[in-house]
Amino acid sequence: MKKLKITYIINRATQVGGIERVVSMLSSYFAEQYGYDMTVVSLETEETDDKGFDYGNKVKIEHLGYSTDEYANRRLLNQRVCKILENEEKKKTDIIITCHGNIADLVALNKRLFSGKVIFTEHASWEYYTKARKIAQILCYRRAERLVVLSESAAKIYRRYGLKNVRVIPNAIREIPKFKDSGHEKHELLAIGRLEEVKGFDNLVCAVDTIKNRLDDWRIVIYGTGSKEEELKAQIKSFGLEDSVKMAGTTNEVLKKLHKASGYLLSSRNEAFPMVVMESLSCGTPVIAYSLPVIEEMNKKYKVIISVEPRDDYRAFGEAILRFIGDEKLRKNLSEQSLGLANDYLLPKIAEKWKALFEELLEVGQ
Fold it and tell me: What is the pLDDT of residues 50-94, one digit of tens each?
């Protein structure tokens, strides 16, 4: 098989976010392990921007440097996307992969400019979108050779609307971390993410409020920034939870923090595929989460995630926390078993799913 040329199109290669982490892991792995010719087109960044994740030295990064004002203008963005497609056609690129809905829209609209294969990826939960956006996505995603979603529950939704090009490939974790110490010695439960409505941190604070007199020396530490930060701080103060809930800002040592903690809390109202859950389990750190479809899917085989029902019930979440901190044997058993689930999502296994998809697409095109 000839050397594949694959191009990702993303907003900001230098951003430290979930999409960027996935693209950096996969593109570098494809280049190093499979010998693919990998390019990442980054719309909004300059070569002088601070570096984000490590893409390795075999992945080409094309920084297009479009300003935020230009990028917000759909007409100008459409012109930019047309130029990208024309350029990829000249390079004889085999496959273009998009990671954002607004870029996918314009690639679909101008698909005639590119004779190769197009893969759209969806990284957000269906519940996240408005009705109008859902309709637009269905119309857009029909035009790709493949739509890759992160879970079977997401695939069922798109298939229900008649899409026959859907494939499921979850996100990957790079490795099972190796630590010198046994970890989990702190009576801390972590929550990590953007401080936004969808992440449900307000719900988590309410849950802690219902059990604050029974926490003893346990505390909850929240890492993240976002538009709800001041509201959350005010909520914590109004409930008198300053000794129980700490807002810790950001951290570059997520895995180390997870390894030290005794558990992880996911209070999100919806999620497409919470990478931090897999990272937590890869550190042997048990997870308490609301019963989201993707959580139930992850949990189906190993039953290592404490799933809380009904969703958004903060009192039930608080009781789940109490059961967890009060049962050392449960914590130990879940910690030992969690590595089995994390192992299923290791990068080499997920990369093989992508490789099979690429080969399937190119065989169809021959």
Answer: 777 889 899 999 999 887 777 678 888 899 999 999 999 999 999
Asked if residue 337 and residue 201 are part of one domain, the reply reads yes
Count the neighbouring beta carbons within 10 Å of the beta carbon of residue 217.
8
CA distance 319 to 332: 19
Residue 38 lies in a domain: yes
Tens-digit pLDDT profile for residues 4-14: 999 999 988 88
Domain that holds residue 265: 188-343
Query: Is residue 181 situated within a structural domain?
Result: no
177 lies in some domain:
no
The one-letter code for the residue type at 109 is: L
Is residue 147, in this structure, part of any structural domain at all? yes
Helix, strand or coil, per DSSP, at residue 190? strand
Which CATH number covers residue 65?
Answer: 3.40.50.2000
Sheet hosting strand 146-149, strand order edge to edge? 59-63, 37-42, 5-10, 95-98, 117-121, 146-149, 166-168
What is the side-by-side order of every strand in the sheet holding 305-308?
245-247, 219-223, 188-192, 263-266, 287-290, 305-308
Our count of domains for the chain comes to 2
Token pair recorded at residue 250: 């950001």
CA-based torsion, 128, 51, 179, 251: positive or negative: negative
Q: Are 225 and 194 in contact (CB under 8 A)?
A: yes
